[in-house]
Structure formats: structure tokens, C-alpha cells
Automatic annotation (TrEMBL):
It comes from the Eukaryota. Belongs to the histidine acid phosphatase family. It comes from Molorchus minor. SUPFAM superfamilies: Phosphoglycerate mutase-like. It catalyses: a phosphate monoester + H2O = an alcohol + phosphate. PANTHER family: ACID PHOSPHATASE-RELATED, PROSTATIC ACID PHOSPHATASE. Its EC number is 3.1.3.2. Keywords: Disulfide bond, Glycoprotein, Hydrolase, Signal. This is acid phosphatase.
């Protein structure tokens, strides 16, 4: 089910209890360069290594923090207050720097360097690379699901063409996505791409990258490992807030990856296949009225957050219904460790 605009039934009597936002880090340098890449020298990237947050990436997250301030200015204090907000980051430099930049935009009138940023468990907010069981499931999906088998077969000549010119081993969606990512970033900073790329980028490789994003959490078993621990944490947090709003933070922020957002959207059945943009984000609002406590969800890619519906729910998703809808997906961090590590 694609994400789409829905008519909100929020009224003036409804109370906002808490907000959770998950955002992708800002623009980064490519995580890899193909052998014939004309821009693989670090001099083209201000001396930064691979996978590092750029200055523009920092600006993107400052602006996202400003957006959050404008959206929730009446809900959140103007100055940082311990116990009101918590920010957690995936354990990579680009994510930590993105979290810091977000806070700079959120609290423009104070020194945010002293605000604590927690390191997320890889079960809750990771790159998926920490779980061997997930890797096996992913390989099974791409090699056994007819939809992805057909895509790979139909594009075998495309893969061969890219291998010939890039000298990079492109044989499937994952490796095609790696090439797309590098070209996408280089085109984004206005570098002239090699002539050979014209026939495959952006159109052909973007379609393959979109299919790769879909394959990340295509099955329920994948969703359990890639989204289950986060959903478990989200639901437990919302239950705690609804029971006693003063007992925990009003706002939780997570600095994550594109794979996190793609997997969460797919698990929600709110995913139109695409590769989530830098600084894109998911927003969850917990609200309460005289009858019920419910959740609203939004996806922000461009300037504004677009309402989305979650699996088994209307836009106003009763918290109990949300818990029931994902009861087959949620797992604890301990369960994740057993499945992935032990």
C-alpha cells in the first residue's frame, strides 16, 4: 500500500502526549567507489573518507531540526531539558554527527554539544549488517522469490554492461544498488558522470535500487529482525506514556539509516518502493481524547510530512489496535540477540 494523504480527524480536544521521530542521516560521501570511478580520490570530497557526512548533510539535519521546532514549538521547551527529550543514534560517525546537527536546529539559542546522545542497539537502529540470520533471509528472498528472480534475469545484460565499464562485480540488486548510490551522490554534487552511465543512470539503476529497497523487508521473517525490536520499543514507550505521561520523555529521536526507514515503511504496509532520501524521516504522534489513545504516523521526504496509515489501522490508530496489528512482528532485543548473535 503506498503512502498517501488522508483526512485527519484530530480535534481541538485531542491532546498530544508524545512524539517519536526516526530520521536518516544527511548527505554523505559514497560508501564505495568502483574501480574506474573518476571521483574516487578524497580530494573530490574535501578530504573526507568514504561514508562520511558532508557539510551539506549537516545543513540538511539542522534544517530538519528547525522543521521539528516549527512543528512542535508549543509542545517542546525552547531550551533543552533533561527528561523531556531523548536522542539515540546508530553507532556510526555520520549518524552521530547528524544527531548533533539536528539538535543544533532544534535548539538554536544554546550550545548543544553537552546534550547527551545515546548509542542505539543494532537491534533497534542498525544497518542490518550485524545479523547473520537476516543476511541469510535476504539472500533467500533475492534468489528464491519469483519477483526478484525475474528482475535479476531481465537485467542480466544490464549487469554485464555495468561490470564491463565499472569493473565492479554487479550481479544482483544489492550490487546494482551500490553502483546507483555512488552515481546518485556524485550526480547530486554536480559531478559529470562518465559517458557509459548515460544508458543506465538514472532511470534503469533507480528502478533496480527501488527494487532493492523493497527486498530488504519483503517477508515477515525479515521484518521481525529488521523492524521488530524498534516496534517493540515504540509500543512499550507509548504504553508507558499513556499510563503516566510524566514518567518518561515527551520526545524520542532516532538517527538511523535508509534501510531502517525502508524496512519500517514496508512493515507498516505503507511503502512505495524507493530509496529513502537523505534526512527523510518518520514521525509518530501519540494523542489522546476522551474515548481513546491513538497514534498518527507521517513520512517526510520533501518539505512537509505526509500522513500514512499503518497496517490494520485507520489514520487515527488506536494504541491497542497498533499493538495487535504488529504482534507477529515485535520481538525484544534479547530475542533479537538470540536469533542474530548467539
Amino acid at each position: 500500500m503506498p503512502f498517501f494523504a488522508v483526512i485527519s480527524t484530530i480535534t481541538a480536544d485531542d491532546t498530544l502526549l508524545s512524539v517519536v521521530q526516526v530520521f536518516r542521516h544527511g548527505e554523505r560521501t559514497p560508501v564505495m567507489f568502483y574501480l574506474t570511478d573518476p571521483y574516487k580520490d578524497s580530494s573530490y570530497w574535501d578530504g573526507l573518507g568514504t561514508g562520511q557526512l558532508t557539510d551539506h548533510g549537516k545543513v540538511q539535519l539542522v534544517e530538519l531540526g528547525q522543521y521539528f521546532r516549527n512543528r512542535y514549538g508549543d509542545f517542546l521547551s525552547t531550551s533543552y531539558s533533561q527528561g523531556e527529550i531523548s536522542i539515540t543514534s546508530a553507532d556510526t560517525k555520520r549518524n552521530l554527527e547528524s544527531a548533533e546537527s539536528f539538535l543544533t536546529g532544534l535548539y538554536p539559542n544554546e550550545n548543544t554539544s553537552s546534550i547527551p546522545i545515546q548509542t542505539a542497539s543494532p537491534a533497534v537502529m542498525g544497518s542490518l549488517a550485524e545479523c547473520l540470520s537476516y543476511d541469510i533471509l535476504y539472500l533467500e528472498v533475492e534468489s528464491q522469490e519469483e519477483y526478484f528472480k525475474d528482475i535479476n534475469q531481465e537485467n542480466s545484460e544490464v549487469y554485464g554492461y555495468i561490470r564491463e565499464h565499472s569493473l565492479f562485480p554487479v550481479y544482483d540488486l544489492m550490487t546494482a544498488n551500490a553502483i546507483w548510490d555512488t552515481l546518485h551522490i556524485e550526480a547530486g554534487v554536480n559531478y559529470t558522470l562518465p559517458e557509459w552511465t548515460v544508458s543506465v543512470f538514472p532511470e534503469q539503476l533507480t528502478k533496480l535500487s527501488d527494487a532493492f529497497a523493497l527486498s530488504l523487508c519483503y517477508t515477515e521473517d525479515q521484518q521481525k529482525l529488521a523492524a521488530g525490536p524498534f516496534l517493540n520499543e515504540l509500543i512499550q514507550y507509548f504504553e508507558a506514556v499513556s499510563s503516566c505521561p510524566s514518567s518518561t520523555e515527551k520526545v524520542l529521536l532516532y538517527s538511523g539509516h535508509d534501510v531502517n526507514i525502508a524496512c519500517f515503511l514496508n512493515t507498516f504496509q505503507a511503502f512505495t518502493p524507493h530509496n529513502p532520501d537523505f534526512a527523510s524521516s518518520l514521525i509518530f504522534e501519540l494523542r489522546q481524547n476522551a474515548e481513546t489513545t491513538y497514534v498518527n504516523a507521517y513520512y517526510k521526504r520533501e518539505s512537509e510530512a505526509v500522513p500514512i496509515t499503518l497496517k490494520g489501522c485507520d489514520f487515527n490508530c488506536n494504541l491497542a489496535d497498533l499493538k495487535s496489528a504488529f504482534s507477529n512482528i515485535v520481538i525484544s532485543e534479547a530475542e533479537w540477540l538470540i536469533k542474530c548473535v548467539l
